[in-house]
Amino acid sequence: MKTLYFIHLILLCCLLISCKIENSSFEIITPEEAGFSSKKLKVVQEFLEQYGSAAFLALYDGKVFFNWGDIAKKYPLHSIRKPLLSALYGIYIERGKIDLNHTLKDLNIDDIEPKLSEIEKQAKVIDLIQSKSGIYHQAAAESSEMIIDRPERGSHEPGTFFYYNNWDFNALATIFEQQTGQNIFDSFYEDIAQLIGMKHYKGSYEKVYDLESYDDIPPTDGFYQYENDKSLHPAYHFRMSTNDLALFGVLYMKNGNWGDKRIIPTKWINKSTMAYSIADEQIGLGYGYLWYVLPQDENLGRCFLHTGNGVHMLAVFPDIKLVIVHRVDTENQYNFSLENLFELWDIFFSARD
User: Fold this and answer.
1) Under a CB-based contact definition with an 8 Å cutoff, are residues 116 and 215 in contact?
2) pLDDT of residue 6 exceeding 60
3) How far, in whole angstroms, is CA 65 from its chain's centroid?
4) Which of 31, 53, 58, 320 has the fewest CB atoms within 10 Å, measured from its CB?
């Protein structure tokens, strides 16, 4: 009977990690080696199939113990673009190219009419990176919720009030390129993707004006979304595979180190994944430097994460060496919701022994 049990266990493990694993950058281990139950993870697989997920990866200490879907196909990251920019800021601040204490006035950053006020120009780069600029100008790629919730111009001084603000995020990209002389997509490829062995991200990009639908998105690794009637500053969008996004998460789990190379300063990772504001009082969700931060859990330890369009997710648990990535094909019709993402989270951690 014991022999049959172990054969069943091995077959189940193979089922859980077999899909598209040839495109993975990672070593494979069993769920049990990661502290999870193979049998319980079967429920996660059924959930992913039922609700229309595109891909899911779970890694322990940089090794895959659960793999589902096409991890090589590239999907838009949506708001997960922001942690990627945070990483670039950490690199170039250490190189002396960017100063977080510079004001927008120092950097000659403005926008179309109605232009920034003198008070708004006193916002510092660090205010933008904490999403506390106090600048409530129209911005490219704003969701309807952002537009509805956007405070009135001049209602908060720089550095005093958190509002998840695409103007801040987009202007940060403008500042990065202005101060470093580097294109964001090229820089991410040269300074991060190549060095950690991303398999699919190559840094190709285009400029898109007046985007009306997903059909207008170019099949590149990135694109600038210009809405010139709203703002001078385009949104910057990344398209990335689940495999490559997981590699980025593992880089953060390893405190910015890759082998014998330091890619992102550890000091920056520690600073950027601390909460400086409360984004959701109900669950205590905080916001750092372009990362969300969960309250510390006695079983899971620290967790910082970001979602995209309410359905994509990258979550890093450095204390327990865990990285999880969930993807949905948001360029086509899909039914997965934010509520499904919460449910998936609960089901997944219920499989932890």
Assistant:
1) no
2) no
3) 21
4) 320
